[in-house]
Design brief:
Layout lengths: L1 E5 L6 E6 L4 H13 L6 E2 L5 H10 L5 E3 L4 H13 L4 E4 L10 H10 L1 E5 L8 E6 L6 E5 L4 H10 L7 E6 L5 H13 L5 E3 L4 E4 L9 E2 L4 H13 L3 E6 L12 H8 L1 E5 L3 E6 L5 E5 L7 H11 L2 E5 L11 H10 L3 E7 L3 E6 L10 E2 L5 H7 L8 E4 L11 H5 L5 E5 L1
Parallel strand pairs: 2-13, 3-12, 4-5, 8-9, 16-17, 20-21
Antiparallel strand pairs: 1-21, 1-22, 5-7, 6-7, 9-11, 10-11, 13-15, 14-15, 17-19, 18-19
Helix pairs in contact: 1-2, 1-3, 1-6, 2-3, 3-5, 4-5, 5-6, 7-8, 7-9, 9-11
The chain binds shikimate-3-phosphate and phosphoenolpyruvate.
Length: 413
């Protein structure tokens, strides 16, 4: 098995990092572009495999669309291929075929999509047999499982003859991702109405206006750099291509990391990270920013900051069961993730010092965020990351960028 061992830096951490572009913003821009008949000029297109897969599949005439492990690609394309009346088989990795899609399929069927499950009800692989508009223009659906179903439907909504109203039920998770979708739709000329008191969104039937669009750098990718700064003795890092008024909810990392010892100063090129004193404990609700949970959990575990976490239920249906994965791997750093209140409140705390006698070897569970969240612990003591290639899903240049601040070596185990 391949692995990378990360060693603590011998000198102060000082770097300028040109971050990868956001795969979330990019995948939305790619779908909207497709709906304009590919007339937009997109710049800073993401190198993330999830976005490269989206581009490949939008361009492909093959019947089988294999999304690999890209959740947004699976959900957004299922809606796009349906409304554009394409016959496709949607599939992905074994894990993708364990990630639920029933809520989206039910909604698309109500609108007129003919979709069959090829194996298990509610899960990929799917067979899409085309679209025959039912005339329905109002959907009531759960908002507490994955926001990606909602974004997928919103993006195709202007194409429907009567537009679409979506009424969301339950506590809406990952809401900033829904807002990102709506903001990008508005940029391309769609005049929507969102009432967050009533959890109702209405999109009129309209044509997307083709325009140039520049994709912002990835705030989820930025979070690992915040953790690197938080865990280094001496550090100053400038992250290029990030904006203060971002469409990405993971820009919440700015506020979270103030408690963990990192100050952010926005410059005309991005954001400059410097060190400040850290708090002894923090509580955070990750409902709006689930992809930050692993970064913050590992950083707190290593810094011995007691962390209370809520809003992490959706982590169980992502690239892996991230709650289980964190529980297993944090133990190797001498820390614990404990469930205090079932499916609601969790706590990260230390049980022994993080200066391990043996090299901890972190299993990554086919999850890019496990690799990228644990590697910053190497700023304090050497750490081994197994299957480091998983980072390609969202941040292919992660290891190359990391070599700008510290030493790591590849080792076969
Ligand atoms: O819409 C998006 O781009 C995403 C939404 C989130 O998923 P959920 O809505 O399933 O939480 C997030 O975890 C994922 O990485 C990207
Ligand atoms: C959950 C993620 O992605 P997706 O759901 O799009 O596979 C992620 O990138 O952390």
């Amino acid at each position: 098995m391949k692995s990378i061992v990360v060693y603590p830096p011998k000198q102060p951490v000082k770097a300028e990092i040109k971050l990868v572009a956001s795969k979330s913003e990019c995948n939305r821009a790619l779908i909207i572009n497709a709906l304009t008949g590919f007339q937009c000029e997109l710049s800073n297109v993401s190198e993330a495999r999830d976005s490269q897969t989206m581009m490949r599949l939008l361009d492909s005439k093959d019947e089988v669309a294999d999304v690999i492990d890209a959740g947004t690609t699976m959900r957004f394309l299922t809606a796009y291929y349906s409304v554009t009346n394409q016959t496709k088989i949607m599939t992905g990795t074994p894990r993708m075929c364990e990630r639920p899609i029933g809520i989206l399929v039910d909604a698309l069927r109500i609108l007129g999509a003919d979709i069959e499950y090829q194996k298990e009800e509610g899960y990929p692989p799917l067979k899409l047999n085309g679209f025959n508009y039912s005339g329905e223009h109002k959907l009531v659906m759960r908002g507490d499982v994955s926001s990606q179903y909602i974004s997928a439907l919103l993006m195709i909504a202007p194409e429907l003859p009567s537009g679409l109203t979506i009424q969301l039920e339950g506590e809406v998770g990952s809401r900033p991702y829904i807002e990102m979708t709506l903001n990008q739709m508005a940029y391309f000329g769609i005049d929507y109405k969102a009432d967050w008191q009533a959890n109702t969104i209405t999109v009129p039937p309209l044509k997307y206006q083709p325009k140039p669009y520049a994709i912002e750098s990835d705030w989820s990718g930025a979070s690992y750099w915040y953790s690197i700064v938080a865990l280094s003795e001496n550090a100053e890092v400038e992250l290029l291509g990030l904006k203060q008024n971002s469409l990405q909810g993971d820009s919440a990392i700015v506020k979270i990391m103030r408690h963990l010892g990192v100050e952010s100063e926005f410059t005309d090129r991005g954001v400059l990270l410097t060190k400040i004193p850290a708090a002894a404990s923090i509580g955070w609700d990750f409902t709006d920013c689930p992809d930050l949970a692993q970064t913050v959990a590992v950083c707190c575990a290593v810094k011995d900051i007691r962390l209370s976490m809520t809003g992490i239920e959706s982590l169980k249906i992502k690239e892996t069961d991230r709650v289980f994965a964190l529980q297993q791997e944090l133990k190797k750093l001498g820390a614990e993730l404990t469930e205090i209140e079932k499916d609601h409140l969790y706590e990260v705390s230390r049980i022994s010092n993080f200066q391990p006698l043996e090299l901890p070897s972190i299993h990554t569970y086919d999850d890019h965020r496990m690799a990228m969240a644990f590697a910053p612990a190497g700023m304090v003591a050497p750490i081994r990351i197994e299957e480091p290639g998983v980072v390609v899903k969202s941040y292919p240049g992660y290891w190359k960028d990391l070599s700008k601040v510290t030493v790591w070596e590849e080792k076969e185990i």
